[in-house]
Design brief:
Blueprint lengths: L2 H13 L2 E2 H10 L2 H4 L4 H13 L3 E6 L9 E6 L1 H16 L5 H9 L6 H23 L15 H26 L28
Antiparallel strand pairs: 1-3, 2-3
Helix pairs in contact: 1-4, 1-5, 1-6, 5-6, 7-8
């Protein structure tokens, strides 16, 4: 799974309608150009590709009074919303997601209801534990990696990754169950993670 589709769909969805530069600006504001494949070329390609696939609706907007070509604004379709939530749920539950995919999932987790977010993270815990158990069928951490030669370091890394991932996930579940953040369907002021039109982006490349 590539993070770019989730990131672009999520960014457009947060605006309601957004043109390519807005999406790029938001993703750079989140630092996604540093921790994912969300580079300018990838973003514009993803927008056009998903419009062809029916996930986004492309609106052609008249050029500004200053001139220039017409600008295209994108809006998430019903099919696109279904794909967005499918990708989001997959990003949060699959234990072996790449860091950029998991980061994108966490960035949009509040688009879910609180109870579902917790259950998805619990599913992530279950898959992490199952993976760790599969590794330790062949490797005993207490004996250390040397028992399997230097190849044992690979399994040692996997076990440590599972333990660290589990600790982090349990902490996030506890914070969410403790009332942190504003989730879908809840009152209160949600966190605003997008730039307003014309707002300067301090992290622009």
């Amino acid at each position: 799974m590539s993070a770019i589709r989730l990131l672009v769909l999520g960014a457009v969805r947060q605006h309601g309608r957004a043109h390519g530069y807005q999406v790029r600006n938001d993703l750079e504001y989140w630092g996604a150009h540093e921790w994912s494949n969300a580079k300018p070329g990838s973003i514009y390609h993803a927008l056009k590709q998903m419009a062809k696939q029916g996930l986004l609706h492309a609106h052609e907007i008249a050029p500004s009074t200053a001139g220039g070509p017409p600008r295209t604004e994108y809006e998430v379709t019903e099919k696109g919303a279904e794909e967005y939530f499918r990708l989001l749920r997959e990003a949060l539950t699959t234990y072996d997601q790449k860091m950029d995919v998991l980061s994108a999932g966490i960035g949009f987790i509040v688009d879910l209801e609180r109870a579902e977010a917790v259950e998805l993270l619990r599913e992530r815990m279950r898959t992490l534990e199952a993976w760790r158990s599969a590794v330790t069928e062949h490797y005993t951490p207490e004996e250390g990696p040397e028992s399997l030669g230097h190849i044992g370091e690979i399994m040692n890394m996997w076990v440590h990754s599972a333990d660290a991932g589990g600790e982090w996930t349990r902490g996030l579940i506890a914070r969410i169950e403790g009332g942190a953040y504003t989730f879908a369907g809840e009152g209160g002021e949600p966190f605003v993670g997008v730039l307003a039109e014309g707002q300067e982006n301090p992290y622009a490349s």
